[in-house]
Every structure is written in C-alpha cells, then in structure tokens.
C-alpha cells in the first residue's frame, strides 16, 4: 500500500514537473512583451527597459523557470506583470467563481443524468428510452455557447428572470451568487448530462447482461430491484471515469461559457492575461488546471477502489 | 489591507448601500453602474498607457493641474489659476486651498513637484513620458504655488498637464496607487473584484462642487453580446462606449434608453508601412486610397456611426480641412494607378487587425474592396500585445487598421521612426514651426498645411473619425457626449427621477 | 467537448434494431449532405463569400438569399457551404493527426506492454490528456497566433492520446488471444504481428471512435472559432459566424440560427452515424462467440 | 410419478424466438428428492428448458405448453408472481461461478438477499440465516467470513456461495445448469457431493443439466436426453444406460468412451524434446494496491519426449501446465534450467532460429480466439510459412493448403472462407491443419478438445491419432481430462503446483497410481459406468 502510494505520488510529481516544463517553455516563446503591452504606443525605450527590469523580465528563461517553479512549490505563484498583485491572490479570487460553477454544473449533470440514465436503461427500447436517447443525442450535438446564447435571449433579455451575466461576489450572499451561476451552469450541464446519461445507460445495459444479474433474478429479484441493487453500482466504474473527465472539463473548459456570461473565472483570466501578455499568470493558471486534472484522475482512481472491492488491498 | 478584509468591508458597504436603497426606494438613485469593455490592469494612470485606467480614475479619483472639459477645452483643476512668463517658458500655478487626498493629507506644492519629477525621472515608467520632456525644473514657491520652467516655449503645455498621465499624487501613496489609489477627486477607491468590477464611493471632503452620486461601480464586460444583454437586463446603467454599434438602433427604439453619439479624438486609419515595398511608391498608396469606399466601411463596420475623414485630423477641430475629395472612392483610377506603378496584376500584402471591431470588421470590408482592384490581403487577427510587438515596434506589416485616439496627434507624421515610417523633411520642419508658434491663427494655417501634405502624400488610408457611441438609462444626465480624452467623468452625473 | 473516453463512448442506439438502423441512415444522410455541400462549395456557391455588399446587409431569408445575408451583405447560405468545408476539413485533419500518431503509439505500447517504452508512451499520453483541448488551443494560439492550422493542431494533439489509449486497450485484448501466439510460434515479430494481426482487427473500433472524434472536432472547431482562435477571415467558419452575429441575434435571428443549426446537425449526423456504425461493426464480433 | 401435486412437471413445452423454434414439445418431470439429469450437446435446448421453468426466457421468446410446480401452474404466471416464486420455490445455479456473483457485494449480503427479498426477516436475521446456509454448504463463517467479496474466493467456493443463495429458503426445486463444467475434477466431485447431500437432506427436486454423461451418471435418478430442442430419450438412469435404446443415446455413449486406434511406436526413438530443471516464475499484482508477489509457476521440471511419442501432461487449472507449454514454444523465457529441441536449446523471442521454429507447432483450446477473424483460411494456413527460410511459391502453396485441408477432413474450397463460417469442431480441424502445414516434428496440443461436444471430440481425437500415424508426429498433449489423456497418449505426466509428481506409461499411471494426488484425481473423475457398477440407487 505504502509502496503503491509512494509510486503514485512520485509519478504524479513527475507528471507535474513535466507539465510545468511544457507550460513554461511553450509560453516562453509567446511573442509580445508585457512591458510594451502595459506602456502602449507612446512609451519610450528607457521607460520600457525600466519596467522590464522592475518585472524581472531582463533575466534568462532558465533562471525565471526555477524562480517560478520554486515559487509554485512554496505556494508563491509570483507577481502578475500587469496587475502587480500576487498571482496566487488573483487565482484564488477567480477560483471562487470557477470552482463553484464547476461543482454546480456537475451537480446539475448528475441530477439530470442519473434519473434519465436509469429510466432509459430500465425501459430499454421503449418510448421513454427512445425519447431520452433522442434528447441526449441533441444535447450532445448542441454547441454549449450557442445554447448559452439562447438561454440569455430567453431568460435574461426576454423574461428577465436572470441577469445576463456577471458575478455579484459571494459577499452579496449565497442566493444572488448562485442565481448568477445558474444559467452558465445549465449551459455547461446540458451537454455533459447528455453524455453522462448515455454512458450510464450503456453501462447499465452492459451490466444487466452479466451473469450475476441472472443469478440475482434467479433469487427472485424483480427487474427494478436488479437494476438498483446490482447493476447501478457495477455500472459506476465507466461512469466515474466520465464524471472525472467532466469535472476537469467543467473546471478548465468553461472558458467559452465564462466569456458568454462574463464571469470572472479562471478561463477568462487566461484569455485576458494572454491578451496582456501577462505570461506568469497564464503559466500559473494553466499549471493549476493541469494539476486539477491530474488530481481528479487520482481521486477517480481512489473512487474506483471505493466502488469496486476487487481494486482494494487484498486482506 | 488583506483581501478578505477588503471583501468584508465591501460586503458591509454593499449591505449598507442595499439598506439605504431599500429605504429610499422612491427617492433619487445615487448610485450608478458604468459598463466598460476592458478592465484596467491596475489603477495608476501615471505608469501605464491603458485607456481603461483613465476611464475609471480620470476626474473621478485623480486630478491634475488642469483638466479637459467635456468640449475638449482646457479648464483649471487643482490649479486655481496660472501665469505664463513673457517668453512662454515659465509657468506659475496657484493651487486651490483646502484640497485633501483621500487619506486625509493635504495637497501642497510639494506633491506637484514630486509628481512631475517622478514622471520625468530616469527610471520613470510613465507611458507618456514625452509630455514632460520639455520640463527643465519644478520649484516649490510656497505651499500653494509651484513654478515650472520649460526648456523652450510650448503652446501645448497646459494641454499636456490635463492628461491623465499628469495627475498629482502624494509621495507616501504613489507606489501603492496600482491597487490602492489615493487621489484628490470626488470619489475614493473602495473595492476591486478583479475580473468583474471596481467600486468607487463619494469622498465627503472633496474640495470642489459636491457630486450627486454616492457610489459608482465600473463593471467590465468585454463581450459585446454580454454588454447588450447587461444593458437590456438592467445590470448596467450606462455603457459610455458601447462596443456593438449594431445594437444602437435597438436601444434608440427603446424608451428606457438614450443613445449618446459624440465624437472622439480617434482618427481611424488604414495604416500603411511607407517603407515596405510596394507601399514606398506613392502611386501605390494613392491607388490604395482610391480603392477604399469609406462610407461602406462606416456602414458595414460601424453601422453608420463615424465621420469620414480625408486626413489625419479630427473633424470637430476648428482647424479641420475637408480633404476627402483627394482620396475619393474610384476603383478604376486605383487600378490604373497600380498599372502605372507596375502592379497591373496586383500584389499580395498583409493586413494585421487588432481586436476592436472597427479593425476586425473594417478589415474584412477593406480586404474585399482591395480585392476589387487586385490587391490581395492576408488577414491576421492579433491581440494588442502582438500588435504592439509586431506592428508598432517591429514594423512587420503591410497594412493595419487602428484608431489613433490621442488628441492633436498629427505630430506623429513628423517622426520617421513612427511605425508607418513616413519620412518627409518638409513636414518635419513644418511641425517644428508649429511647436514654436503661439499665435492661434498662424497655428491654424500651419495645421491645415500639415493636413494637406499628408493627405496628398497618401501616407495612410484615412477612414473615419471614431464615434463615441454610448448607451445610457434615459434617466441619467450629465454624461460626456464627446470624448476629448479617455474618461468617464462622473462629476456632473445625476439621476433625474 | 468531452466523451472522448474510448472505453465507454456514448452508447448504442436504443432498441438496437429499427431505431439504430434509422439512426445510421439519418446520420449518413446528414453527414452526406454536409460533405456534399462542402465539396460543392469548391466549385460553386450561390454567391461569392468574399464579396461584400454592405447595402444588402442583414436581409432575412428570401428567394434570392435562402438563409438571408449577414452584416456585410454576404450570402449566408454560401457561407454555410464554405463553412462546412472549414469545419469538416479541420475536424477531419485533426482526426487524421490523432489517428496517425495515436494508433502507432498505442500499437507500440501494447506490443511492448509492461516495458519502459509502454510506460513512457502512456505517461506522455496522460500528460497530454491532462491538458484540456481548449488549453492546448489557447497555448498554441498564444504562441503562433490564431489560424485554422493551429486549431487543427490543437484538436489533433488532443486526439492523439484518445486514439493511443483506445488502440492500446483494444490491442492488449488481442495480444491475449491464441492467434497472436500462433503467429509468434511461426516466428513473427511484435511489429509484424501488430501490423498484420492486431491493426486490421482494430479498424471497426477506430472507425467508430474516429466518427465520434470527428464530431467532437467539429464542436471544438466551432468553439475555438467562436472565441477567435480558429479559422481567420475571410474564410467563413460556423463558429466565427456565430461569434460575429451574436450581437445581432436579437434583431437578425437568422444569423445565429443557421450556423448554430449547421453545427448541431453536422454533429448530430456524425454521432448518429457513429452509433449506427458501432452497432453494425460491433468491435467485439470477432472476439467472442 | 403419480401425484400431480408434487414436484415439477413440464409438458408439451415449445419455445420460439422470432420464427426460430428453440424447444419443441419438451416434457419431463422432477419429483421431490429426485435428481433429474438433462443431457445434451450445445444447442440441444437444455438450458432454455431451465429458463422456461424459471420464467427467465429472453423477452422476445414465445412459450407454449404447461409447467407446473407442486400442482401450481407456473407457466402462465405473471412476472410479479414469478419473482415471488424464484428463490423461494425454485433456486438455480449456473455454469460460470467466476461471474455468477456480484463482484461488489459481499457474499453474506448476496446470500442474505434471497432471504430479505422474500420478506423472511430483518437484515440481521437474514445475515444470521446466510451464515447458517453458508456453513451448510461448507463455508463456515469463521473460515470464510460473510464480509468476503467474491474475488477473494476460489471457483469452488464461489459455486458454494451460489448454491447457498439458491437453497437459502429450502426451495422445492433446484436447477443446476452445468454447475461443475468450469471447475477442476476434484472440486467438481466436492460440489456434486454437496448437491447430492442437499437434495437428500431437504428432499428437493434437482434438475441437473450437463453435457457430460459421466457427471450425470453418478448423480441422477432419471435422465432426459435432448437433441436439437427435442427430447430423444428419457428414463431411469440405470435402465437408460443399460438399454441405450435410442440411436443418439448410443452415439453419445460411443463418443464419450471413444478411444482411437493405438499408434505403433518406433523402437528406440531418439529424444526430440528435452527439459532439464526448467523454472518459470512471474510477478502477480493483486488489485490496485496489491504488493507484487513472485509466483513460481514451474518448478524444476525435467522430462524427455521421444520422436513419434504422444506425451500427456495433466493437472488442474493453475498447476503451471500452460505456462510450461508457453516456455517450450519459446514464447516466454525460462528463469532456470534448459529446454532443448532436437538437441538445440530453445530461446524465447525473436532470436529463436527458424530451423528451430519449424520443428514445432501448436493447437490451442479456444476454437474462437485461435484465428484472426479478419483473415481467410488460406492466409491463416499460410502463416507458418513465415518460419521457413525458403517458403514455397504460390503454386506449391495452394497445393499444400488443399492437401492440409483434406488431411483434416475439410474441403479445398474452404480455403477461401472466413473463420466465422465454421463450427467449433471445424475450427479445431483448421487449427490442426495450420499446425501441420510445415510438417513439424512436434505439435503442442493445449487442451485441444476441451471446448468441443463429445461427438465432435471423438472425431478430432481420431484425426489426431491418424495424423500421428501418417506423419510420425510427436505430441505434447496438455489436458485436465483424464479420459481424453488415457485415449490418446503413450505416456503421461501429472503436474501439481508447478512440479511433476508422477510420470509413466499412461495405462500404468492411471490404473495403478503411485502418488496420492494422482489417486485423488482419478477418484474425483466422474465415471460413466457409475450407475451400472453401483446397481440401482434409492
């Protein structure tokens, strides 16, 4: 167990180091000078040099990599070139939007997908199944930003039930904050829920074909009991994989939706920072997202073991 | 202050504001939410060029010795009055009495000296350091009097001192100005939720006329659709520079809103690399000029908002000369000129477009118009940072579209190193003459001569003067109509019902 | 832009029989329609999509302009046709990159299962997988600037681990089978067995996954173009058409409707086709009785 | 067979799926305390009959006929009523114990589920009952706790759990569908003994479904023989076994006891394959968090195989016989000792020289996994040519392929067909043809007939003997089935836990075993003559 955990931790660490090298040196060659971006068209050469020195940009990339990577280890993400505030602070602020949004969307996804997937699997080939499969087929195909536009048109501009975007901040209260995240969460959740519904359904149907289902039926369990007691838990493995991927996607991939709803999240921070050539922010956010993905993958591995005793330590 | 405390304080303030709002449900509103496309990187106007900084702090939070009035004229601000020496090189400013910074400290001549010295010092990171280049010396005469000596007469010095980059800061707080700006204006900084908004509140001890608003929120919405939705949904009260002109008609049709269309100092031009063949040939540049249908660009890209121009000069300026006829739309003539220049089969060049929609949309239209006369363009959309790097500094471009928003900036044509690389000694000496000339009529003549030279040299393709097209709740008054500088001056703004 | 997991996919059509059959044909018809439109656009479109006629801007659908005109007066129907070309080409090449690199990697990893090269390949895969597609795209375009080519590259890179994992997983199953052992007894090497025995058996599942990645590629291209990281003007692209028309959505809904529906129907068509093919070409058919 | 009130009665049962008839007018009965053997080869409809009784037919199936249990007509019962009946009145156990249990539920919970689902008490009471029942089937909770998961048990233990969950409520009828087919002979004997005890103690009726006459012979009071969805023969076991009235019954018996004609051995043959102290171990990691453990699969194995000899290797699953086979084939390296083929050492991997390769070929057990489904027979048969330095030209190749096909009793035209067009027996013939085509000296036969029905098995064994005679081949015949080994080998080796425990001439080893393990194996093997030897049973 210990050896496995150590091995896992080591490989996780190596992945992160590799990722940090990729991120840093890929973005190192980004054309554009943050100092020039800040000072604009009338800046004079000496002013630019002064600013570059102030930002530490006059040093070599290797030195800067070690500064940055060393800082990451200490939890110090450096100082933003353009905002001149600690990057950690900026990321923390944005994370308070992106993370709740991802969780909200994930909750919606699960709330939709589980009943729908179970209903479809239970009534395989019947009208319910066909309807759910048809709707999910559309749900997967609809581009989420387009769906978001339609939501804004319907619920913000026309009905005025929700504000069209923006985020009042958690200090405005949980209610208003959640309300502001509702439309984006729906826009994110619909395609994800469609995917998860289909995955759950096919996993359930596959599981329902297993021998132990037959054994359970021979014990006198009804179809419904078999579905709930036996099929669902066994179908969770592929479903967990997808949920893990979806969470990573929701956290990192909400960039477009954050733009549509002008939410101050991590995705928009990346775009904005690239525009301003605030590369240190871009690097740190990308690293954080990559770390999140790797961590989620690891957690999903652990969740497998919780679901499937075969993956647990033998007694 | 840690951000948690900031947030807490902000929360409390918001709560208080909310209660106040509830109590005064039928009373006048005293808060405003101003929409802006870009978020400022930080809030120190003296160390960055970003227009967004001035759009938040200019006249609201920071003030200079002089200021721009809504009509573009120069008015006294912190300086109550001034004297100019006979030879035009010594300016003596008399400061208002009782001006305090938001931290309670008093403004005196020492602060003015500090601010100006800081801006022109060796390690200054002031983006408009040129404004201060002529200053030879700043002396404190007494706490309310400061004397500035120039190395030569400068007709535009008062104008320079009105820029946002020339605002007065106190030595103790100057370094913290990026995140905790302390100025002398009618509003003080309260909170910044990065990525979303900046909040200012009324400064009760303001020296000047008290303002009507208690609270101003600048909300950053970069996406045009979101901007439209936010206005429509009432999340934002005014969008002084509305990013999508196509939506203005809808706002106009809606009695809840008022569309405010004014002019800006932004000459929008098809900037041409005068050193890069074939644009080093005046005939090619002339062909380019005749190939462009300005009105189609204005209609297509700006939905009709914008004034066509024939030279690099603001049409609302008294010295403006209408030279549009010089470069009238005439594709046949353009083709003929190209053939004369040896490009009968046309040629291919690059067209680099920065983010604003005037550039992106205008670029597509111009590309189509150039294609009509045989010029193929490879369009590249670039971010501002890349534009600065590649186009402005690297001069690696054939064509680009950009709006030059600095007021009275025809002088850039006298700089042969400027990115479009126009090098005309006649024009350069004309500018030297203008600089030394104080007589208004003589200045007008010189300016008109300058306009004619660059128009007839077809330095760039002159497209239109960028309109300042804003939207506001119909009940708001006192917003600037024109934009002599980049600012959202809220000092005169009030709700009417 | 997810669901790329090869092991689970999105499941077969309900009911197996008639519905799957109908799905396959509806999917094939939709895909065929878009492919035909894309191919036709090389030789003919109703109007020249690069011609701007500002006077004719923002017209609704009519006999002259079936889908109306955009804010520059360009014919929307023509743009949708050329946009189909962009979308299909980007997604197709991206799938090609994913397959071209991922399949050999997966085959190699499976052939050398348990070895250090397998470990290296799979760890590199995990590393790429840890970068969401959009992040890859953002990074690439930050470096090289936005273009259709860079969008292809980003989506293609994202596809590599998808195909590598799928190939490795499925190939490992075949490496357990006796016919591989029989081939080894005849002295065939791992490389030869991979190409001769393993790869042909993966065609079905690669076709199915390819179809799914193709549809994901179209969605990804639309998303990238929508945020300005995809095909550049004047080349029409559905995602950019949506982005450009977004502000006019409320008074010229046709501008958002037709590109949006095009994406929806193209993706739907590919998904239906993929699911139909999955049922038809059940990859397990060759493996189990 | 008097009272219609007790036991199971099936009359005129017909089942069809779509337009395909599955069962035609099937009838049999199982009295309380009686063991009814249902025998048939694959596709005979024996399992479908069980499903019809359980009401677990596929949804698309249509059923006619009468099924009564204890006088109750259960053929036309609603699904709801059938659910109440299953587990309570009828229990069923299945062929594959490895997959018949839910992997994520403890065994206690799965046994208790039968109790709980039929409302017989609280969770606690159900678990207590589960503990009792598990103890009764030979899994006392102090040795095998209720909290174990199926993967922690052996195949035989799992089958005991399935049995426990089936008999927890003492049903009137137990249906066992090939309950021991997937198990080793020693385990099989234990499970059969357990079933016999339970039937006796509870007075249950047992419907024992098997393809193996010998398994049923030792257990059943009465036998029903099925073929292609019909009952062809039926009666009390002893009488039926003696009379063998029906031709199909006769054929089944003949095939089950079939011994090919002996193959004469050359005098003083030189050794072809020599193993000296061969060791082979592999690393196993149990579970995600498991510590890797070294498994010594083959321990110090030495033997000689003479040219022209047929040598048997028997042992139960996991004894290392297949691992040894892979090492001999040069697929895996050995960790110690040496393998020599015709005097030259065998090196695993691509370095093995072609002249070594061409000396041996292999036939595997699985008739489905042995062929690339994408290749035609022609290409499959051509594959061994890869081991030749100078493969024949197209003309010679075509001739060789049609010769090989006719050697194994197939048609030359079959060369252009795909593998899925053939039956299991035909596929094994193709596998043999492939092994034969380059005329190797040694063929390793790894359970070549285990997956085949008895009648097909007999034909394949004949073919193997015939080919050996004609081409002077040597066989290393790996099998778990003593009857098959007895039929086709000259000498036999018994393997247990990686070691050869006994070796010698086949007849001698099987008739006068020296080692305890060999004796246990032989004692556990079901015997077809059981009912005849013991006389009639009660």
Automatic annotation (TrEMBL), chain A:
Xref: Pfam families: BPD_transp_1 (PF00528), BPD_transp_1_N (PF19300)
Domain annotation ABC transmembrane type-1: ranges: 95-300
Topology relative to the membrane: Multi-pass membrane protein
InterPro entries the UniProt entry points to: BPD_transp_1_N (IPR045621), MetI-like (IPR000515), MetI-like_sf (IPR035906)
UniProt subcellular location: Cell membrane
PROSITE patterns: ABC_TM1
Keyword Transferase: no
GO cellular component: plasma membrane
Gene3D superfamilies in UniProt: MetI-like (1.10.3720.10)
Entry's transmembrane regions: 101-122, 134-157, 177-196, 235-257, 285-307
GO MF entries: dipeptide transmembrane transporter activity
UniProt keyword annotations, A-Z: Cell membrane, Membrane, Transmembrane, Transmembrane helix, Transport
Family: Belongs to the binding-protein-dependent transport system permease family.
Protein name: ABC transporter permease subunit
Biological source species: Oceanomicrobium pacificus
TrEMBL record, chain B:
Predominant location category: periplasm
Protein's cellular compartments: Periplasm
InterPro entries for the chain: Peptide/Ni-bd, SBP_5, SBP_5_dom
Biological process, per Gene Ontology: peptide transport
Keywords from the named record: Signal
Pfam families named among the record's database cross-references: SBP_bac_5 (PF00496)
CC annotations in GO: ATP-binding cassette (ABC) transporter complex; outer membrane-bounded periplasmic space
GO MF annotation, one: peptide transmembrane transporter activity
Record's signal peptide: 1-27
Residues in Solute-binding protein family domain copies: 74-402
Keyword Signal: yes
KW Membrane (keyword) present: no
CDD domains recorded: PBP2_NikA_DppA_OppA_like_6
Family: Belongs to the bacterial solute-binding protein 5 family.
Protein's name according to its UniProt entry: ABC transporter substrate-binding protein
Organism encoding this protein: Oceanomicrobium pacificus
Automatic annotation (TrEMBL), chain C:
Subcellular localization: Cell membrane
Gene Ontology BP annotations: transmembrane transport
Keyword Nucleotidyltransferase among UniProt keywords: no
GO cellular component, one term: plasma membrane
UniProt keyword terms in alphabetical order: Cell membrane, Membrane, Transmembrane, Transmembrane helix, Transport
Membrane topology term: Multi-pass membrane protein
TM region(s), chain numbering: 20-44, 88-107, 127-158, 202-231, 251-274
Residue intervals of the ABC transmembrane type-1 domain: 84-274
Domain of life: Bacteria
Subcellular location, principal: membrane
Entry's family note: Belongs to the binding-protein-dependent transport system permease family.
PANTHER family assigned: OLIGOPEPTIDE TRANSPORT SYSTEM PERMEASE PROTEIN APPC (PTHR43386), PEPTIDE ABC TRANSPORTER PERMEASE PROTEIN (PTHR43386:SF25)
Protein name from the UniProt record: ABC transporter permease subunit
Automatic annotation (TrEMBL), chain D:
UniProt KW Iron keyword: no
Record's keyword annotation contains Cell inner membrane: no
Matching SMART domains: AAA
Ranges in a coiled coil: none
A Pfam match: ABC_tran
Keywords carried by this UniProt record: ATP-binding, Nucleotide-binding, Transport
Localization of this protein: Cell inner membrane
PROSITE patterns in the record: ABC_TRANSPORTER_1 (PS00211), ABC_TRANSPORTER_2 (PS50893)
Membrane topology summary: Peripheral membrane protein
Entry GO MF terms: ATP binding; ATP hydrolysis activity
GO biological process: peptide transport; transmembrane transport
Database matches in PANTHER family: D,D-DIPEPTIDE TRANSPORT ATP-BINDING PROTEIN DDPF-RELATED (PTHR43776:SF7), TRANSPORT ATP-BINDING PROTEIN (PTHR43776)
Protein family per UniProt: Belongs to the ABC transporter superfamily.
Protein name (record): Dipeptide ABC transporter ATP-binding protein
Organism whose genome encodes this protein: Oceanomicrobium pacificus
């Amino acid at each position: 167990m210990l050896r496995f955990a150590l091995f896992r931790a080591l490989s996780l660490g190596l992945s992160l180091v590799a990722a940090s090298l990729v991120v840093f040196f890929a973005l190192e060659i980004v054309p554009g000078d943050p100092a020039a971006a800040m000072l604009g068209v009338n800046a004079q050469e000496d002013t630019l040099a002064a600013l570059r020195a102030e930002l530490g940009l006059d040093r070599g990339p290797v030195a800067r990599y070690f500064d940055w990577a060393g800082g990451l280890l200490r939890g110090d993400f450096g100082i933003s070139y353009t905002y001149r505030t600690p990057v950690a602070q900026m990321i923390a602020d944005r994370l308070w939007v992106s993370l709740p949004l991802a969780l909200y969307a994930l909750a919606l996804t699960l709330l939709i997908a589980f009943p729908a997937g179970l209903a479809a699997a239970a009534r395989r080939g019947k009208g319910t199944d066909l309807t759910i499969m048809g709707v999910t087929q559309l749900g997967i195909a609809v581009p989420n930003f387009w769906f978001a536009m339609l939501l804004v048109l319907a619920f913000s501009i026309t009905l005025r039930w929700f504000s069209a975007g923006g985020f009042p901040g958690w200090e405005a209260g949980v209610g208003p904050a959640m309300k502001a995240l509702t439309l984006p969460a729906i826009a994110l959740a619909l395609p994800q829920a469609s995917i998860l519904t289909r995955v759950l359904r096919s996993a359930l149907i596959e599981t329902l074909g297993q021998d132990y289902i037959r054994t359970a039926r021979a014990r006198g369990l009804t179809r419904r009991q078999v579905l709930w007691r036996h099929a669902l838990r066994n179908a969770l493995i592929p479903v967990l994989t997808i949920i893990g991927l979806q969470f990573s996607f929701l956290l990192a991939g909400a960039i477009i939706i954050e733009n549509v709803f002008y939410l101050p999240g991590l995705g928009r921070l990346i775009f904005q920072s690239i525009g301003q050539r605030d590369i240190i922010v871009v690097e740190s956010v990308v690293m954080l997202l990559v770390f999140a993905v790797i961590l989620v993958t690891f957690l999903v591995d652990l969740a497998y073991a919780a679901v499937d005793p075969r993956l647990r330590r033998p007694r | 202050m840690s951000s948690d405390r900031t947030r807490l304080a902000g929360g409390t303030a918001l709560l208080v504001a909310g209660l106040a709002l509830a109590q005064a449900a039928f009373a006048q509103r005293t808060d405003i939410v101003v929409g802006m496309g870009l978020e400022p990187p930080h809030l120190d106007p003296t160390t960055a060029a970003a227009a967004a900084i001035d759009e938040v702090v200019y006249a609201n939070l920071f003030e200079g010795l002089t200021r721009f009035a809504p009509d573009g004229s120069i008015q006294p601000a912190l300086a109550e009055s001034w004297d100019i020496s006979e030879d035009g090189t010594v300016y003596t400013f008399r400061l208002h009495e009782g001006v305090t910074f938001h931290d309670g400290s008093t403004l005196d001549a020492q602060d003015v000296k500090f601010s100006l010295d800081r801006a022109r010092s060796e390690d200054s990171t002031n983006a408009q350091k040129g404004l201060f280049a002529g200053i030879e010396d700043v002396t404190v005469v007494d706490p309310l009097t400061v004397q500035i000596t120039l190395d030569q007469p400068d007709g535009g010095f008062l104008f320079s001192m009105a820029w946002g980059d020339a605002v007065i800061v106190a030595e103790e707080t100057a370094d913290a100005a990026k995140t905790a700006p302390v100025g002398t204006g009618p509003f003080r900084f309260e909170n910044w939720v990065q990525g979303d908004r900046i909040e200012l509140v009324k400064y009760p001890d303001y020296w000047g006329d008290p303002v009507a608003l208690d609270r101003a929120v600048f909300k950053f919405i970069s996406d045009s659709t979101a901007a439209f939705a936010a206005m429509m949904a009432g999340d934002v009260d005014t969008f002084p520079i509305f990013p999508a002109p196509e939506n203005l008609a809808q706002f106009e049709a809606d009695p809840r809103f008022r569309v405010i269309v004014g002019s800006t100092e932004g000459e929008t031009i098809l900037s041409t690399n005068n050193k890069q063949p074939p644009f080093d040939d005046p005939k090619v540049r002339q062909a380019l000029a005749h190939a462009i249908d300005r009105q189609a660009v204005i209609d297509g890209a700006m939905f009709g908002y914008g004034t066509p121009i024939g030279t690099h000069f603001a049409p609302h300026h008294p010295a403006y000369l209408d030279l549009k006829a010089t470069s009238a739309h005439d594709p046949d003539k353009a083709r003929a000129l190209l053939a004369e220049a040896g490009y009968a089969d046309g040629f291919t060049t690059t067209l680099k477009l920065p983010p604003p929609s005037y550039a992106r949309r205008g670029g597509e239209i111009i590309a189509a118009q150039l294609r009509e006369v045989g010029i193929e363009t490879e369009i590249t959309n670039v971010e501002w940072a890349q534009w600065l790097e590649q186009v402005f500094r690297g001069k690696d471009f054939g064509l680009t579209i950009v709006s030059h928003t600095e007021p009275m900036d025809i002088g850039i044509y006298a700089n042969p190193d400027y990115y479009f690389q126009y090098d005309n000694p006649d024009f350069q000496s004309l500018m030297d003459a203008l600089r030394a000339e104080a007589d208004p009529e003589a200045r007008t003549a010189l300016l008109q001569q300058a306009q004619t030279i660059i128009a007839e040299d077809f330095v760039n393709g002159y497209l239109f003067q960028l309109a300042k097209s804003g939207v506001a709740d119909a009940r708001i008054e006192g917003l600037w109509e024109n934009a002599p500088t980049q600012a959202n001056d809220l000092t005169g703004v009030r709700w009417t019902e | 832009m997810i669901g790329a997991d090869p092991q689970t996919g999105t499941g077969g059509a309900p009911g197996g029989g008639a519905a799957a059959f109908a799905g396959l044909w509806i999917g094939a018809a939709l895909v065929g329609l878009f492919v035909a439109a894309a191919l036709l656009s090389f030789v003919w479109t109703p109007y020249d999509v690069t011609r701007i006629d500002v006077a004719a801007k923002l017209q609704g659908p009519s006999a002259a302009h079936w889908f109306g005109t955009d804010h520059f007066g360009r014919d929307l129907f023509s743009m949708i046709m050329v946009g189909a070309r962009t979308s299909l080409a980007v997604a197709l090449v991206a799938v090609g990159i994913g397959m071209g690199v991922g399949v050999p990697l997966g085959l190699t990893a499976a052939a050398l299962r348990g070895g250090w090269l397998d470990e290296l390949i799979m760890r590199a895969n995990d590393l790429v997988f840890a970068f969401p597609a959009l992040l890859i795209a953002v990074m690439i375009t930050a470096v090289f600037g936005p273009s259709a080519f860079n969008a292809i590259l980003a989506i293609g890179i994202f596809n590599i681990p998808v195909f590598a994992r799928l190939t490795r997983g499925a190939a490992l199953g075949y490496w357990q089978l006796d016919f591989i052992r029989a081939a080894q007894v005849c002295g065939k090497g791992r490389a030869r067995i991979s190409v001769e025995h393993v790869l042909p058996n993966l065609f079905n599942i690669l076709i199915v996954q390819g179809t799914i990645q193709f549809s994901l590629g179209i969605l990804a291209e639309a998303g990238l173009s929508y945020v300005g990281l995809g095909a550049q003007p004047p080349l029409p692209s559905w995602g950019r058409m949506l982005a450009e028309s977004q502000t006019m959505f409320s008074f010229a809904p046709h501008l958002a409707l037709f590109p949006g529906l095009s994406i929806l129907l193209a993706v739907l068509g590919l998904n239906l086709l993929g699911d139909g093919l999955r049922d038809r070409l059940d990859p397990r058919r060759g493996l189990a009785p | 067979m008097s009272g219609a009130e007790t036991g199971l009665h099936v009359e005129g049962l017909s089942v069809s799926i779509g337009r395909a008839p599955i069962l035609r007018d099937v009838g049999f009965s199982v009295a309380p305390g009686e063991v009814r053997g249902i025998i048939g080869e694959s596709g005979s409809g024996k399992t479908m009959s069980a499903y019809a009784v359980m009401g677990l037919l596929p949804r698309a199936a249509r059923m006619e006929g009468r099924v009564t249990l204890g006088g109750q007509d259960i053929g036309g019962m609603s699904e709801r009523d059938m659910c109440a009946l299953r587990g309570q009145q009828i229990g069923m156990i299945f062929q594959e114990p490895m997959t018949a249990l839910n992997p994520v539920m403890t065994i206690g919970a799965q046994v208790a589920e039968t109790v709980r689902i039929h409302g017989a008490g609280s969770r606690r009471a159900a678990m207590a009952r589960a503990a009792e029942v598990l103890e009764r089937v030979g899994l006392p909770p102090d040795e095998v706790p209720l909290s174990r998961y199926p993967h922690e048990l052996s195949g035989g233990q799992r089958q005991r759990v399935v049995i426990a969950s089936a008999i927890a409520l003492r049903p009137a009828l137990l249906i066992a569908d090939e309950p021991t087919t997937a198990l080793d002979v020693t385990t099989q004997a234990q499970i059969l003994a357990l079933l016999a005890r339970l039937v006796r103690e509870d007075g249950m009726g047992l419907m024992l479904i098997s393809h193996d006459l010998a398994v049923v012979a030792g257990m059943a009071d009465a036998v029903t023989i099925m073929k292609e969805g019909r009952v062809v023969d039926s009666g009390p076991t002893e009488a039926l076994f003696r009379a063998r009235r029906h031709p199909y019954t006769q054929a089944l018996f003949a095939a089950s006891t079939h011994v090919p004609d002996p193959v004469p051995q050359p005098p003083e043959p030189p050794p072809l394959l020599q193993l000296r102290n061969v060791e082979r171990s592999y690393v196993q990691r149990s579970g995600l968090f498991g510590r890797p453990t070294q498994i010594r699969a083959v321990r110090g194995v030495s033997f000689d195989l003479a040219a022209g000899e047929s040598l048997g290797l028997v042992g139960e699953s996991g004894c290392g016989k297949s691992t040894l086979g892979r090492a001999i084939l040069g697929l895996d390296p050995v960790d110690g000792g040496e393998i020599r083929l015709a005097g030259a050492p065998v090196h695993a991997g691509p370095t093995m020289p072609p002249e070594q390769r061409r000396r041996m070929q292999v036939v595997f057990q699985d008739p489905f996994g042995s062929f690339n489904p994408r290749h035609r027979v022609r290409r499959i048969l051509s594959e061994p040519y890869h081991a030749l330095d100078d493969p024949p030209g197209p003309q010679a190749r075509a001739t060789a392929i049609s010769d090989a096909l006719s050697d194994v009793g197939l048609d030359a035209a079959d060369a252009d067909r795909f593998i899925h067009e053939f039956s299991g027996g035909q596929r094994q013939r193709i596998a043999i043809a492939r092994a034969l085509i380059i005329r190797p000296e040694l063929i390793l036969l790894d359970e070549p007939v285990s997956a085949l029905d008895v009648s097909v098995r007999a034909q394949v064994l004949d073919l193997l003997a015939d080919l050996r005679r004609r081409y002077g081949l040597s066989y290393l015949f790996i099998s778990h089935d003593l009857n098959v080994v007895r039929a086709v080998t000259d000498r036999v080796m018994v393997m247990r836990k990686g070691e050869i425990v006994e070796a010698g001439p086949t007849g001698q080893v099987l008739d006068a075993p020296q080692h305890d393990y060999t004796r246990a194996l032989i004692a556990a093997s079901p015997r077809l003559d059981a009912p005849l030897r013991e006389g009639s049973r009660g």
